[in-house]
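Two entries, shown back to back:
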Amino acid sequence: MSSDQQNNSKGRNPGVTNETQGDPATSMSTVLETGASMVQDLKPVKNICAFLNAFHVYADEPSRTVEAQHYCGHLNEDVRQCLLYDSPEKNARLIGVEYMVSPELYETLDPAERRLWHSHVFEVKSGMLIMPKPALIPEAVWELAENKEMEKVIQLYGKTYSLWQVDRGDKLPLGEPRLMASITHEDQVPDFHGMVTERDIRFGSDYMRKREVRKLIPDPEVHPDADKCKESKKHGKHGKHDSQKTEMQPQRVFN
């Protein structure tokens, strides 16, 4: 068994997977794609300016976790959009999308819509959300840049949809898009430490160190409608909304 096969047999995304149903790309297809990429101006893709790694859970099955590589770009100062892949490799599968908006825009959404969005406080403060470091960049330099990015992301609200359920072994993107939620505490998923540590080994990262360093990042107030998509699934399409609960509260993750 090859090393890639051994990694795949563990059940977690090893970062080098592509088990898509279908025949391998032919030499002619590869040549045509290479030529097209040299002469076509792929402007939307060139707008991607950040690579993040994190985990999501299915809103209606919160015990199921999916690792996603986020390739994000800014539409403006208040809106970001991310393509989610199952690995950082050239043959990665596009498995979802995530939109992120500022608190100011989030406030303008109606209550039912707000419940579809999640916060990023735990992702940042726990050390789970990372910007994988390029090989030639010194650790201290990259940590400074990463923390600056985390200071921005921790304020944002995200709405994520899964398009391809690779965690259950689907060879093609089957069924309807699935709303995803954020992990908001360690006990939410089985073996949080093992899951994130395995990821860290692949990327040369250390979430516990990041957790310690990020204690200096202020905890923002999280709108009470955020992180409610799991509850919404229990109560129907949009869930119940208590219009009385409008006061935002700071979300304290770690002391």
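entry 2 starts here
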Amino acid sequence: MLQDDTLGQISSTRIIAGRIAQQTLECAHFIRDYSEKKSFWKRLGKNTASETDDLTARYNKALDDLMQQFRGQAICNIAYLVRFTSKDSDVLLTFHPLIPLQDSKAERYKRVFSTIACDLAGRDRGMKRALANAVKNSPALKSTGDIIQQWHKLFIEPPKELSGSSAEPVLILIEALDESGGLETRRDLLHILSGTLKVAGVPHISELPSNFRILVTSRLLRDIDH
């Protein structure tokens, strides 16, 4: 990876950020000038409520699209920087956004650790065998929505069987933690990632293999910040 390529990726993030700022400014101008626009619409015989809803929806969509672009580009930047700075060894980089897919009701956060485990299994033969053994012994793990079970049985235990066969650095990116449902739905996930989960028999995050690192991105919501 050339340094110029890496800097180019970061530059593109600045461009997207500039577009977000411009769109936000347009929204602010709309709010400031709303009374004048409302009077103008009335003079034209338009339905002011409908016009307001339509314009607000367009602003929301434009901002949502820009934020999706920004988040995606930010993760790419991290990936490029990780690859650029890891000169002595390859980094196994796995990316897991919690943002729901467009026009999808899928709640990705409910399968976050099983998804990560499957991704790692697809990249490492040892992990693939270990994960297959775990599922063979407990078939219910294939479809469980219990995030604590996923963490324990699919994510923590399988790597212990590798016996040091996979020593390359593993960087797991979990993007948009703030999109992982509400306060209740992300409570266990937060406890796991912060090392504050207190469930008998469930491994602490410090028990991850020494070559594993987890990087989380999120807006600073109250429960996440604390």
